[in-house]
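agent> Task received from the user: take the single chain below, predict its 3D structure, and emit C-alpha cells. No templates, no multimer pairing.
agent> Plan: (1) validate residues, (2) run structure prediction, (3) serialize to C-alpha cells, (4) report one or two observations.
agent> Step 1 OK, no nonstandard residues flagged.
tool_call: predict_structure(input=
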Amino acid sequence: MRPFILAILLLLAVSESAFGQGVDVQIDTVPVDVLRLSDFDPLNPSATSVFFVVTVTNDDSPRDLAIRVDVRAVRAGYLGSAYLELGQVPPNGIIVRTNQEFEAYDVGDAAEDLVDFALERGVLPPDEYVFKVVVIDQTGGGEVIVGEEDDSIITTNPTTNLDLVGPGTEFWSEPEELSTPQPLFQWLSNATDFELTVFEVRPGQISPEDVATNLPVYTARDLSVETFAYPSFAEQLKHGVTYAWQVNALVGTASGTARYPSQMYWFTFNSPTEDDFEADNVFVNSLRVDPQESAIKPGESVRFTYEVFDADGALVLNAVPSWRIVPDRLGEISEDGVFTAGDESGAVAVVASFGDVEDYATVVVETVEEVNSRRDSIFVEVLSPVDGQEFLEPSPDFLWQASTSDSTFRNAYLLTVRGPIEFGAAEQAPVFWQHNVTGASSTSYPGSVPGLQPGNTYAMTVSALDERNNILSTSEGVTFSLATDPKISWEVLNAWDVARRQQTDSLMLPLVLTLASPPLQQTVRDELVGIGAVIEIEADPWVQLSLPFYQIDALAAIDGISLVSLPSPHILFSDTTQSIDPADVETFKPLPGRVPIKVAVFEFGFDQNAITSLVGGRVTYHSFRADGAVGGSNTVDALHGLASVQALFEYLPRTAEVHLINFNTEPEFKAALTYAIDDLGVDLISCSVSWANAYDHYDGTSFFTRSVVDILDDDATMIVAAGNFAQSHWEGSYEDNNLNGAHDFTPGNDFLEVQLDNTKRYTLLLSWDEWGAPTRNLDVEILNDRGERLSDAFGRPYASRNVQSADGYIEPMERIRNFQPLYPGVRTYRIRLTSPNRPSPSDLAPNFELYIYPPPEGSVPEPDAASSLASGLATARSNSIIPVGASSFEHSSQGPTNDGRVRPDFSTSGVIRLNQATFEGTSFSTPRVTAVIASVISMHPEWTRQEISNFLQNATYGGNPAEKSNQLGWGSLDIEAIISALGTE
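)
tool_result: status=success, residues=985
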C-alpha cells in the first residue's frame, strides 16, 4: 500500500519540459483538489485512470534511458522516488508512458505519517508537493542525468459540508411562498466551486428524488461564491408554480470532478401584489444584519441587530424580521437575534427574513484548540492596486503577499471586490465579485463575470484562508477605479466589452468620431489608417469609419478627436410598422403644377419593388449608406420609406422630378444633403426620419443644425417631421431633495414608472442644458417594478453612465439603445436618473430632457414636458426648414422650442390607410405638406419663402390666422382651399 500511495503523489506534477543534452522530457497531468484512496486499485495498476503522461523526445543519438521522480512534501519532507525503465530509445525517438506503467518505488521515512493519514481518512493530506523529474542516460552501463525539472502543486482537500440557507424549505414541510421574480439563492459550504440547478415541480411530485428526474428550468455553472441571484434573462418564474433548487459542490479528484449534492429546497412563486413586503403600509425593499461576520467559541453568544429599508433607502422602524440559523444543529437563536453556539464547531448562517427579503451573517464556531492552532499571525498586504489607483484596462491585475510564521498555511486566499462605491464607507458597499486563489498571490479580473464599469470606484481586500476556507486574516482595503477615457462613449465601451467576452474583438465596429477642430487633419488621418481604420465619410465635425474592436484603446490615444461614439439609433416618426400593400396609382389626386420642380425624399430605406408597382419609373434612387443598401438596415426602414413615398404622391404635381435618397448615419445624411443640393439641384426635401441623439438643448444652436441650415441656404427648403413624442417626453430641473443621488420625479419618488411591451425595443435619451462644457454628471438606468437593477446576459446593467465633467465626456447626454423588456406582455418598469457623485444643493439645477422611443403604453407620472420636439432639425432657427405636425394625433410633438419659438409651422393628416394596415404619425404629414409646397412653387416659382408661407397660412383650418400655436402651427392645411386658390395648370 505504501508504494502505491507514493504513486498517487506522482499524479500531481504539472506540465513542464526539461532539456539536457538534446533530450526533452514533458509531463502532462490532471490537476486535482483532492486525492482519494478509492481512486486507485493497488492490485491492478493498469486498471486505474491515466493521471499523467510522460513524453520523452530523444536527440539524434541512440540512448538507454530511465526516469526517476523524487517527491517531497513541504510539511512532511522527503516521501520517496518512483522509477521507470524506458530501455533503448532510437535517435529522435518519442516515448510516451503513463502512471499505469510505473512499478518500482522507494519510500522515504517521512511518508509514514502521510500514509497513516491517508489510511485513516481515505484521502491524502493537503500540502504542497514538490516533484523533481529526472531523465537518466544508462548507455554503456553508466548513469548520466540528461534532463531534469522540478515543480510543485498544492492540494486543498475542500470538504463537502453544504447547507442551503434559502429561499425555500425542505420537502418535509410545505413549500415557502415567494413573490420575487429574481430570488437570491444562498448556501454555506467549505467547497469553492459550485453549480446550482432550479427545477419546476410537477403536480404529484413530493420528494427530491422525483423532482431530480425533471429537466432543469435553469442551471448556473462555474460559481465560486455562495450566493446567486436568479438572472433576469433566464426563464421567468411562473405565477402559482412550485420550484425546487439544489446546489452541487464540485471537487476535482484524480478520477474527475466529483459532485456532492446538497439537500433540495422548494418554494412556490406567486406574483407580487401591492400588499407584499409591507409593514404598516410601508414597502420593505431590503434589510441588513450586523455584524456580518463573527467568530466565537462553543457555548458563547453573539447578538445580531438589523435595519430594514424601504425603496428610497429610508429606515422602516416598525418592521420586525424573523430569525433562523442554518444548519440548526450548531446552536440556537432567540426571537430578538441572540445566537448561542452549541458544542460543535463549524460555520453557521444567521438569517433574518421579512417576507421574501432576507440577509444573513456568518458565524464561525471554533474550539479553543482550533483557535490556538491558528495563533501565529498572518499578515496579508495588497501590492496592486495601490490605494486610489485608476486602471486603464477592463481586466486589471491584482497582486498581494502574505507574511507568516505558520508553516501549515496553505497559500489559499479569498479576493473580494466591493462596489461600486457610491456613498458611505467601502465596507458597506455590496460584494461585486469574489474569487478563490490557491497556490498563487496574483490574479486578473476575468472577462467571464460582470464587468467593472468605467468611472466607478471599487474596494478590494484579500483574506488568507485555512484548510476549511475560514478566514485567518484580511488585508487592509484599497480602492481603485476603472478609467473612463473622456473620448469614449459608454455605448462603445459596452460593445467592446461584449466583443471581448465573445472573442470577436477582431471584427470591425462602425464608429462616428467628433473632431476637436474640423476638418480632418492629414496627421490624424494617417494615424487612423495606421491602426486599421477604414474611413467612409467625412462630414464636419464628424468622421464615419470602421475599426477593429481591439484598436479602440489606440483610437482613444489619437489627438484631435474629442468624441468616439456608435452611430445613433434610428427614429421613425410613425406609430406602426405593419406590412402594407402598395396603393393603386388611380387613387392619387395630384395638385396643379406649371414649371418643373425637383423633390427629394430623405429616408433610411426604400422598398424598390413596391415603389415601382406604386409609381412606375417616376423616381431615381441614391444611397449614401456605406454598404449601398437602398433597402436600409431592415424591412422596417424599407416599409417606412414606401409609406412616405405613398403619402408624397397623393398630392404631388406631375411636374415634379423625384429623387429617393437614403442613408444610415448623421454623417451620411450631411453628405446626402450636400449632394442633393449641389449635384441634383433639388428645390424641396421631405425628411420624416431622425436619430435618437441630442445635438443641443433643443434650441437650434448645435453645430449639426446650423450646418444643415448653411447647406440649405437659399437653394432648397427642407420639410421635417416634428416627431411623435407628445406622450413620451419628460423635462424638468434635476432635484434631489433627500440627497440620495437620484432625481425626484415627484416629491419622495425617485422613479418614473413606465409600461413597456416586450414585443418592442425601446431607446431612452437623456440630455441636459450644459452643451459645450458639462460640469454635472447625470446617468440613467432601467429597473424592474421593484426598483431592482436589471442586467443583460453578460451581467452589465441596462444603464448609460458616461462620466461628464469639465475635462471628461464632452456631451451632456446619456442613451440606452434597443432595450427589449425582459418580462412577457406589457409590464411596469422604472426609470431612474442619478448623479453618481452626490452634488451639493447649489448644484442641483440642470434642466434635463428625457425621451423614450417608441412611446410607452403608459407612465406615472405622465409626460409633463411643455415641448416635445425631439428632432434636432425641427428646432432650427431658419425659414429654410419647415417643421410639420400631425393633426388629430395624440403623439404629435409640440412646441415651443427651448428658446421660446413656436413650433410646428403647419399640420395635416398623418394617417395612411392601405387595405387593412394603418400608418400614423408626423412621418406621413411631412411628405403631404411637401407635395403641397411643391405645387405652390411649381405654380408660382417667383414667390419667396415668406410669400409661400403667407399663402399657406390663409389656406388652413383649426388654427388662428392671427396667432401661431404650438399644437398645429398656423393650422391644418386645407387641400381643397389650396386647389381653389392655385387654380389650374
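agent> Step 4: summary for the user.
The first strand starts at residue 16 and ends at 20.
agent> Done.
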